[in-house]
Amino acid sequence: MELVVLNNTGKETGRKITLDETVFGIEPNKHAVYLEVKQYLAAQRQGTHKSKERSEITASTRKLKKQKGSGSARYGDIKSPTFRGGGRVFGPKPRDYRFKLNKALKRLAKKSVLSQKMKDNSIKVMEDLSLNAPRTKDFVTLLNAFELNGKKSLFILPEANDNVYLSSRNLPKTKVLSYNEISSYDLMNAGEIIFFEGAVEKFQENLKK
Question: What are the structural domain ranges in the chain?
């Protein structure tokens, strides 16, 4: 399985790069993808929600009326959940929504997404890019060359590159990440995935550990 390497103007360089079929050519496992995306989204939740229960309400504890003889239901104090302003029954409490998944399952999820993207012709490889300084204008030119302006795109770097990252930071539909920061959610959320040439081998090795 091979892909043509493109330059930063979107033209073919004449070189090809070999992709590992055990990473980019497997039968997608939808359930594995579902679990990793669910884990990613759960980890984004703050979990700081809180409502007051009956014991936490500041109000009188006086019994509103006698227990028997009224002809209606029994009443306790004004903090009862049946009254407006009373405590809430089984309300939310601060909690951590994160949960653990096996590394093998997470690798399977990434391989599944990449294999589906490969079938959809949504993966490209471009030669490594070096910018002398952060300039959004230069990155917009790159997006236009790949016909990605206004589309969701993910650029995968072989290593951290501040100039490339800062050049793309103000572009709402463009995301730039290093190969070891990628989650299945990032891959799923991108319409087009652009690998920098040096990132392909590192990414494949990372998924085969």
Answer: 2-46+100-207, 51-91
- pTM recorded for the entire structure: 0.81
d(CA 28, CA 14): 31
Per-residue pLDDT tens digits for 145-196? 888 888 899 999 988 888 888 988 888 889 999 988 899 999 999 999 999 8
pLDDT 10s digits, 56-108: 999 999 999 999 998 999 889 999 999 999 999 999 999 999 999 999 999 99
Fold adopted by 2-46+100-207: Ribosomal Protein L4; Chain: A; (3.40.1370)
Q: DSSP per residue over 138-197, as a string?
A: HHHHHHHHTT-TTS-EEEEESS--HHHHHHHTT-TTEEEEEGGG--HHHHHH-SEEEEEH
Residues in the chain: 209
Determine what percent of the chain falls in helix, strand and coil, rounding each to the nearest 5.
35, 15, 50
What SS3 state is found at 123? strand
In sequence order, the β-bridge partners of residue 155 are: 176, 194
C-beta separation of 92 from 109 below 8 A? no
Burial classification of residue 95, based on how many CB atoms lie within 10 Å of its CB (0-12 exposed, 13-18 middle, 19 or more buried): exposed
Whose tokens are 């539909």? That residue is 173
